[in-house]
Specification:
alpha/beta; N-utilizing Substance Protein B Homolog, Chain A; Rossmann fold; 3 domains; seven-stranded mixed β-sheet; four-stranded antiparallel β-sheet; 19 helices; globular
């Protein structure tokens, strides 16, 4: 059996049945199963995930009994097969069908003839399958075409009002994100790293927003001595902008209250030239272990980790921090390019309750900022109820803070992940007027 498609199948099953994050589980299966073409596996996995609702719409049209009665194992194989037939020009039709049938014989026994029949029906009827009528229901049309839960499209329609802009945002979320790295100034200069990477055959271009960002194309970048020796970390340019806007100074005390897995804490420590204190806290101890391990690779020794619930006030830190970063838990609508499964989250009580948690964390964290210090609030989402509304409500409750700078980065405009960053200053006045 083809190990590339088998690896993709296992990955998609874990995402579907275990609600695993695609990027994590995909890397796990590639390492464990050693497919001959990891690039093929990634293209197939992300292609299926990015187009899941569209693929299911097609399957529902082709299967006699509709999609509701199809088992998960059968459905994943059908999605994989139809995606190869529709989008992967390098895969011959016979190979897409035959390999799907082989998968069915292994993972959906007794259903291989059914799967073969549906795929051959798609080859015969593909051009007669039409999307829902846009003029009758634009939300449903866009939901199927770009494979997003309708509530996300409705949210962005409410936010931006211009449906052409919303469609551009939906389309950008389905594009493959470029690999972006953050240069570690403690270990290497930008010009030197660019030169060394290009000598190894990598294609490199500089970022537009972060001075430390490089976009790199090439195979096995993380297996180079440049990575092992801590010269860079993988981090999207939008995420790098958080450290840049925080603008820490040498000797500062900086708190990152939702730190794990630590990318922003580490970027801040690099900007401080490893001089000062970065207190990285998170509710999960196992995630803080990642921060400590990465700090060792990068040559950073000023990060102090602590297990802490960010919604609670740590009385030992009240009024002590020069900068406090709140990278709040959020709906993640800005990182759909990297985690397409986010598109299929339902509008649950958990999603609706996020602003309550975000406000609790922001309010607790504000107490750590010394007079004249800075409070930075950020999320990796595109949702005003988790972004602008939170900041506005917070400042009404705590007038000691005022907005210094704010930005909403968007994939269709900036070519980055969707990220909201707001930098607030605490008044220098020690006594309320």
């Amino acid at each position: 059996m083809d190990m590339n498609r088998k690896t993709a199948y296992y990955t998609l099953m874990d995402v579907e049945t275990k609600k695993a994050y695609s990027n994590i589980v995909l890397n796990h299966h590639i390492i464990c199963r050693k497919p001959s073409s990891p690039a093929f596996v990634r293209e197939l996995v992300y292609g299926v995930l990015e187009n899941k609702m569209l693929l299911d719409y097609v399957i529902d049209k082709l299967a006699d009994q509709g999609i509701e009665k199809i088992k998960t194992s059968d459905l994943i194989i059908l999605r994989m097969g139809i995606y190869q037939l529709a989008k992967m020009d390098s895969v011959p039709e016979y190979a897409a069908v035959n390999e799907s049938v082989n998968l069915a014989k292994r993972f959906a026994r007794g259903r291989d003839k059914f799967i073969n029949g549906v795929l051959r029906s798609y080859i015969r009827d593909r051009y007669s399958i039409k999307l829902p009528d846009r003029s009758e229901d634009e939300i449903r049309y866009l939901s199927i075409k770009y494979s997003y839960e309708p509530w996300i499209i409705e949210l962005w329609r409410e936010t931006y009002e211009n449906m052409d802009f919303v469609e551009e945002l939906l389309k950008a979320g389905n594009e493959t994100a470029d690999l972006t790295i953050r240069i570690n100034w403690l270990r290497v200069m930008k010009t030197d790293l660019i030169r060394d990477l290009e000598r190894r055959g990598f294609q490199v271009r500089e970022g537009k927003h972060s001075r430390n960002a490089l976009y790199v194309r090439g195979e096995n970048l993380l297996e180079t001595e440049f990575y092992r020796n801590g010269m860079f970390s993988v981090q999207d340019e939008a995420s790098q902008m958080v450290a840049q806007m925080t603008d820490p100074e040498h000797g500062d005390i900086v708190m990152d209250v939702c730190a794990a897995p630590g990318g922003k804490s580490l970027a801040i420590a690099e900007r401080m030239n490893n001089n000062g204190i970065v207190m990285a806290s998170d509710i999960y101890k196992r995630k803080l272990d990642i921060v400590e391990r990465e700090a060792g690779r990068l040559g950073i020794n000023i990060i102090q980790t602590k297990t802490w619930d960010a919604t609670k006030v740590d009385s030992s830190m009240i009024g002590r921090a020069d900068k406090v970063l709140v990278d709040a838990p959020c709906s993640g609508l800005g990182v759909i390019r990297r985690k397409p499964e986010i598109k299929y989250k339902k509008k649950t009580k958990e999603i609706l309750g996020l602003p309550i948690k975000q406000m609790a964390i922001l309010s607790a964290s504000a107490s750590y900022v010394k007079p004249g210090g800075r409070l930075i609030y950020c999320t990796c989402t595109v949702n005003p109820y988790e972004n602008e509304r939170i900041v506005s409500d917070f400042m009404r409750k705590d007038p000691a803070f005022s907005v210094e700078n704010t930005v909403q980065l968007l994939p269709n405009i900036d070519g980055t992940d969707g990220f909201y960053i707001c930098k607030m200053k605490k008044s220098d006045d020690l006594v309320e007027k």
